[in-house]
Amino acid sequence: MSEQRDKAKEKSRYHKERKVRERRKDTVIQSPTKATQTPQRVKEESPEIKVSAQSKARKEPPKPEEKFKSLEKSEKVEVVIPTVLITPPTPEYTQVKVDSGYYIQRRQQKVKIPLIQIDPPIFKFQRMLLNGEFTMREKVRVPVRFPRLKLHSPVFAITNSPLDSTVNIPSLPKHSPNTPRTIVSQSREPQKKISLTLTSSHEVNPIEVKTTQELETLGLPETDNGSVIFEREFPDFVETLFGVGSNELKETNAAIILFRDIKNEGYIHLFEKFLLRLQREKGKVGKPKKLTLSSEDWNREEVERWLDEERIIFVEVANKEILEKLARQDLADRLWTIFSRGDGIVVFYTEDDGTFSKINEMIQDINWNRLGLKPEIFKVVPRELPFNLKVKISRITYGLVPIPDVAPNSKMSWIINTAEKQYLKALKRIMQMYEPFFPVKATDDESMEHILAKYFIIHSLIKRIQRERDLQENLHEIEWDKIRELIETEPETYPRPDVLYNPKNEHFEFETLFGESFRKITNKLNEYSQAKPEAKVRVVVEPITVLLHLNEFKRQLAGIKKGKLYSNLDVEYYTFDLSKERLMTLEEFFKATSEIVKELNKEHDKS
After folding, report:
1. Which of 187, 243, 464, 499 could form a disulfide with 508 if both were Cys (CB 3.0 to 4.6 A apart)?
2. Are 280 and 312 in contact (CB under 8 A)?
3. Distance (Å, rounded) from C-alpha 562 to C-alpha 568?
4. Which residues 6+ apart lie within 8 Å of 148 measured at CB?
5. 346 pairs with which residues across the strands?
6. Strands 570-577 and 582-585
7. pLDDT at position 28
């Protein structure tokens, strides 16, 4: 439609211009009547227009007569030529679209800019803002050198020498004290003298002397089976085996442990289980990372990748040649990366004395001032144990679990790992045995250790019911509805025990000490003491937990037996005995542990 309108407009404009041209051609020039007559502008006649018959019928106005004058050839006539002003047509604008596909070629032109030397501006110091987000992790410990003091006279050491009974002490002169004179307005009555008569008795009352064993147990409470809780404390079990105390390993945040293992024994596996347990009690959860000093494992990208997930790293150093291939600066860079967050434990272990000395030298040469934090460095050399002690320590760590097919030449690594597998296997077998009949209630964040312990407590209680009430031994013939009335898991009470045994109103609490250490038991007993006085509380813990806190359990148990702690509660402590599938009292566990400690001391005296 727009094209047709444009064509029509173009056609009308053409006709208008044509008419103007025709008018110019038909113009007639008229001359004046007299010579003095001013020239007149010739009128333009309109072009002939064809009209229809209807328009001819109209009456046209009369045309004036035109008079023409003939002129001589030599006569001059002034002719006025009119000026015709032709205005250009007014343009009409239509819609214009820009072609977006049109390409404009760009041209780069090099411009030379003269070099101008600019002097540095002079800054005026106005103010300084302190960055409040900056924090210092730990103060840098810088060794201070004290100057040596030169003594002009020798220093005499005071030694413990017996007192010379023959030394005569000179008698000092007696002086009467000078008492001030007091003037009173009234006279005092003279004081009466009091006579004292001293009598002495030469009779000696005999005292019965106790033996050493009787003195150790004097005044201590006895248990139901007649065993006595000794006040004498146990040595630290971890320190006895490895020379480093459990408290030191638990309290450290950043540490490098250099472990020199016994050749072809694998004591590092036993040390690893104790170390991981202590760190879990501290709240650090996660499996350890096992590495070697090869370039594939010990590179920066690999370290940064697993650093966010793991906190404890075990690095095997097979021989001295591996250390020589590793640059000292590369080792320092990796350790700086690990300890940049202020915590972490790296264990380097080897069986070679030369490799142990070499890695110790490399660690000591690292400049820790750059990091601003120097980790603690522990050197651990385990005690070499005979076969019978290796088996006893592995069994006591995992609830006296039987270890089948143990050869006399078995390594420590095989014995302890087999004991752990048998321990978990026995607990899972008990869980699978009762799970179809007696599913326990579990919280959302409950660990697998907690669930297995609940089933073991239920198993021991059902065995007690079978002894006391002639209950069927076949689980398929037991009336489980009645058992659920006797035993409840996670009842809706406060405090909420793990297992409640209704016939004797016993509250069983299983504690792993994860995240809170030993104060978790103390907090739980405080809850019962305040909310449920006179309650019967049965605290159940794993055997490895007892080994790591022997003296803490002994002190608390002795205070409870003497009535100094939780006197309004009936508290008993138990652990697992998988050899008989029962709950064993801590007094029995202490007795078995003390026998192992005695054997360890005998082996130490022999060496």
Report:
1. 499
2. no
3. 12
4. none
5. 256, 313
6. antiparallel
7. 45
Tokens of 135: 């924090």
| Residue of 193 and 483 predicted with greater confidence | 483
Largest CA distance in the chain: 199
- Greatest mean pLDDT among 288-297, 316-325, 368-377, 489-498 lies in 489-498
Those residues whose C-beta lies under 8 Å from the C-beta of residue 181, and which sit 6 or more positions away, are none
Report yes or no on whether pTM surpasses 0.70: no
The number of residues in the chain equals 607
268, 349 Cβ separation under 8 angstroms = yes
Question: What residues contact 347, with CB distance under 8 A and at least 6 apart?
Answer: 256, 257, 259, 268, 272, 275, 312, 313, 314, 315
Residue 550 pLDDT class (50, 70, 90 cuts): very high
Please name which of 504, 562, 514 lies closest in space to residue 538, comparing C-alpha atoms: 504
Q: How many helices (H) and strands (E) does the chain have?
A: 18, 11
The Cα-based distances of 533 to 165, 343, 525 in angstroms read 62, 42, 10
Task: Give the number of C-alpha atoms closer than 13 A to the C-alpha of residue 449, restricted to the C-beta side.
Answer: 16
> Side chain identity at 127, as an amino acid letter?
R
**Residues whose CB falls within 8 Å of the CB of residue 565, separated by 6 or more in sequence, listed in order:** 556, 559
Residue (of 548, 547, 238, 250) closest to 383 by Cα position:
238
> Which SS3 state, helix, strand or coil, does residue 77 take?
coil
495 touches 508 (CB < 8 A): no
